[in-house]
């Protein structure tokens, strides 16, 4: 079937174009200060395949053929611009080489690197591009603005563990950085990674009928993620550090765009870095890949604080995504509008919530003030008013909307079978859905056909019509991540599951797990019913510290104990295992190495060592290929 734009979507896009802002300043700002572009736009990954192709979005230089929302087309054209840019003399950014930006601040001895992208390959290419223009300066410090992987994953492309260990390259981060970086990428990493493949359109072909960007940047690089643990923690707002001769004043902003995040000001440059707290889009209060809900009330308060602390001293504002804003008046206006955006969504959601409206109802009723609609950077290219409002409702009220009819609904497959039966069977339902498709009621089409597919996953007519409906909804989406979700769903219905293109849990992230986090990651994988009748007691003495793990009732609990065993209610251990942290993690992640480490003497066993292997046999393996659009 053809995926040409339907008349209804074409008309919706034409109408949307008449309501877009007319300000053209971003066109100049996104290209301002360009110093150099990559000589070779393709950055090779570890297996030789492209980790990044900076030329892959060249089609955006052409006219929009009508398969992309005109606002998203404009945003993608701006975020696709790649190269080395001067923010102000002494501060430079490489943009368009990953989802995020990397910033270079020249110091007395070398260069400070801020947020070194997602993968080693793209970060190394960015540093090489910087050095090709500004000279072969050593990296003298790294700053992680927050705990998302697109702001630390490429660190080993710009420095080494040895340089950090020697003190030549300190690594700065906000409080809780390591805890949140690991928990997000390990605890729920499999599910988040699978959904991130949809969110960023990882398996979609680049082009006007496929992936055109993600609103925050084009997409995520596919290479080697890494992590070097921070050596310096910023502990207070107003803390001043002199890094390689450059004074920096920090502002902690926990609970905003990330649970661990900070902004910082360079007084000698009159330059304010807003991390990811103020970008040229409405951001997420709950990202579609899954995460903790972000608090827009706190977010707005910190933006007010940023204005008070720094805006009257700054001449330029830059961030870890998008392009800078120059001019004191302009950047204050930008920050104020961003602040009002999050505050308005929060306050109005609460107002309507207290009138008895549900999250879905509020999302349909919410309209931004005209003054906010009339500027580009408040548009929902990455977050959206719709899903942000639902997240705010969730933050305060949870999943339940108060209607008892929704308290104990059937699970999706059983519910779907009943719906389809009530509607006269799958064939009749698909026929009615086709009529709705022809009438342009695409939201209803995908709702109805979702029931058919969960009742009869192999129904060819339902799969194709659902794919067509998803495609049209993708074409009509201003939001880059919505477009990618819709088009990815269509692709999987037609071609089968593409799985998780990028794998969570890189070796560096796993190696950074604390013993407590490692045992937590074990606990969430225990197959409870299989373990109900078992009682297992294991003590791991890791680098001299005793960790007691006790399995009862299908629950694995653990705690650090002293030499007398105080605090352990479950009694003595069946086995005590003694090793270093490295061996402990190896025996957890790769159980078959257990006997090898015993034989080598790196692991000592006091008691029945088979108990540990029994515990590992009770673990479920995460599934990175689970279904999303089918049951």
Question: Could you provide a short overview of the structure?
Answer:
By secondary structure, the chain is of the alpha+beta class. 39% of the residues lie in helices and 15% in strands.
Describe this entry's structure for a reader:
- The protein has 631 residues and is α+β, with helices and mostly antiparallel strands.
- The protein is 39% helix and 15% strand.
- It contains 23 helices and 21 strands.
- An 8-stranded mixed β-sheet has the order 1-4-5-6-7-8-9-10, with helices on one face. Strands 11-12-13-14-15-16 form a 6-stranded mixed β-sheet, with helices on one face.
- Helix 15 packs antiparallel against helix 16 (460-475) and helix 16 runs antiparallel to helix 17 (480-495).
- The protein is globular.
- The mean pLDDT is 95.
Reported for the largest beta sheet, the result is: 8 strands, mixed
The rough form would be described as: globular
Radius of gyration: 26 Å
Q: What oligomeric state best describes the polypeptide chains here?
A: single chain
Summed up, the helix count is 23
Q: Which residues form runs of ≥5 with pLDDT under 50?
A: none
Task: Briefly note the structural class of the backbone.
Answer: alpha+beta
Mean pLDDT: 95
Strand arrangement, largest sheet? Answer: 1-4-5-6-7-8-9-10
Distance between the termini: 24 Å
Number of strands: 21
Helix content: 25-40%
Tell me what portion of residues adopts beta-strand conformation.
Answer: 15-25%
């Amino acid at each position: 079937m053809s995926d040409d734009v339907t008349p209804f979507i074409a008309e919706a896009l034409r109408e949307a174009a008449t309501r877009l802002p007319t300000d053209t300043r971003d066109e100049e700002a996104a290209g301002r200060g360009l110093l150099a572009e990559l000589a070779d736009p393709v950055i090779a990954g570890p297996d030789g395949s492209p980790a990044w192709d900076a030329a892959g979005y060249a089609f955006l230089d052409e006219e929009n053929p009508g398969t992309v929302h005109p606002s998203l087309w404009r945003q993608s054209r701006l975020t696709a611009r790649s190269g080395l840019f001067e923010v102000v003399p002494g501060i430079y950014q490489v943009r368009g080489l990953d989802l995020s930006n990397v910033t270079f601040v020249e110091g007395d001895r070398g260069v400070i690197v801020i947020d070194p992208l997602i993968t080693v390959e793209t970060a190394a290419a960015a540093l090489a591009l910087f050095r090709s223009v500004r000279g072969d300066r050593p990296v003298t410090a790294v700053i992680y603005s927050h705990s998302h992987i697109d702001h630390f994953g490429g660190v080993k492309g710009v420095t080494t563990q040895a340089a950090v260990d020697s003190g030549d390259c300190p690594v700065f981060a906000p409080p809780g950085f390591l805890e949140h970086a690991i928990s997000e990428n390990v605890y729920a990493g499999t599910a988040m990674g699978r959904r991130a493949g949809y969110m960023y359109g990882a398996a979609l072909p680049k082009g006007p009928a496929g992936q055109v960007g993600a609103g925050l940047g084009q997409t995520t690089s596919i290479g080697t993620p890494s992590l070097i643990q921070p050596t310096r923690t910023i502990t207070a707002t107003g803390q001043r550090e002199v890094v390689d001769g450059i004074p920096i004043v920090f502002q902690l902003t926990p609970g905003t765009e990330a649970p661990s995040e900070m902004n910082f000001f360079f007084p000698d440059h009159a330059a304010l870095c807003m991390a990811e707290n103020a970008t040229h889009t409405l951001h997420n209060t709950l990202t579609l890949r899954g995460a903790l809900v972000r608090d827009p009330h706190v977010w707005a308060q910190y933006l007010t604080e940023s204005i008070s602390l720094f805006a009257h001293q700054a001449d330029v504002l830059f961030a870890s995504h998008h392009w800078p804003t120059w001019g004191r008046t302009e950047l204050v206006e930008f920050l104020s509008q961003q602040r009002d955006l999050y505050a308005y969504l929060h306050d109005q959601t609460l107002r309507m919530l207290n009138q008895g409206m549900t999250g879905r109802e509020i999302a349909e009723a919410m309209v931004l003030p005209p003054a906010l609609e009339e500027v580009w950077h408040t548009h929902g290219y990455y977050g959206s008013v719709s899903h942000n409002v639902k997240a705010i409702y969730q933050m305060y009220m949870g999943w339940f909307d108060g209607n008892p009819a929704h308290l104990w609904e059937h699970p999706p497959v059983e519910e779907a079978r009943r719906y389809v039966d009530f509607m006269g069977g799958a064939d009749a339902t698909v026929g009615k859905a086709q009529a709705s498709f022809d009438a342009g009621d695409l939201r209803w089409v995908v709702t109805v056909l979702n029931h058919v597919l969960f009742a009869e996953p192999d129904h060819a007519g339902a799969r194709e019509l659902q794919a067509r409906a998803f495609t049209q909804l993708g074409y009509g989406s201003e939001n880059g991540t919505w477009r990618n979700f819709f088009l990815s769903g269509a692709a999987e219905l037609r071609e089968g599951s593409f799985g998780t293109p990028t794998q969570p849990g890189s070796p560096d992230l796993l190696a950074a797990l604390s013993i407590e986090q490692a045992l937590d990651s074990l606990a969430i994988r225990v197959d409870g019913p299989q373990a109900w009748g078992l009682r297992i007691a294991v003590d791991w003495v890791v680098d001299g510290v005793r960790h007691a793990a006790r399995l009862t009732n299908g629950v694995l609990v653990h705690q650090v104990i002293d030499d007398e065993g105080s605090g352990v209610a479950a009694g003595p251990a069946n086995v005590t295992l003694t090793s270093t942290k490295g061996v402990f993690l190896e025996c957890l992640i790769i159980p078959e190495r257990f006997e090898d480490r015993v034989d080598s003497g790196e692991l000592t066993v006091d008691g029945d060592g088979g108990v540990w292997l029994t515990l590992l046999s009770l673990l479920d393996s995460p599934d990175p290929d689970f279904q999303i659009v089918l049951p």
